[in-house]
Specification:
With 147 residues, the protein is mainly beta. The longest helix is centred in the C-terminal third of the chain and has 17 residues. It is built from 2 helices and 10 strands. Strand 9 and strand 10 form a beta hairpin.
């Protein structure tokens, strides 16, 4: 006889990582997003550890690839189709919150941070160039496309 076992697939939570975690002032940092739901409709990024429209950096609609900047947009942020957010020429440490809306109107939120150090306190810390960060994003997008 055969024993059949079936279980519901577990849903992975949206996560983010700072690449690099510690960045030298004036360099670039990427908040790299993982496990975005397949039915995601769009993203909203906020400065701080909560969703607050007064601190919205950018909103992105996946189907149209249109982004709308918010009150906290500085002109140094770039959002990518996978939800990742690039900060160029960073100046201060901070928390950032990603809000993902899905087709069934469920919301997922994740908050992360990066730390900015003055070059005199960090020394010659390795950091990623904008080209390296774009390469990471393209690699992640290619990996997602294969799934």
């Amino acid at each position: 006889s055969f024993l059949t076992f079936w279980s519901l697939p577990t849903t992975a939570q949206v996560t983010m990582e700072s690449v690099p975690l510690n960045v030298v002032e004036g360099k670039d940092v990427l908040l790299l997003v993982h496990n975005v739901p397949q039915d995601a409709l769009g993203y909203n990024w906020y400065k701080g550890d909560k969703v607050d429209s007064n601190y919205r950096i950018v909103a992105y609609v996946i189907s149209t690839q249109v982004n709308n900047t918010g009150p906290a947009y500085s002109g140094r942020e770039t959002i990518y189709p996978n939800g990742s957010l690039l900060f160029q020429n960073v100046t201060c440490t901070g928390y950032y919150t990603l809000h993902v809306t899905t087709a069934d109107l469920q919301n997922e939120e994740v908050t992360g941070q990066f730390r900015v150090y003055h070059s005199s306190t960090q020394g010659n810390s390795p950091s990623l160039s904008a080209g390296a960060i774009v390469g990471i994003v393209i690699g992640v997008l290619a990996g997602v496309a294969l799934i």
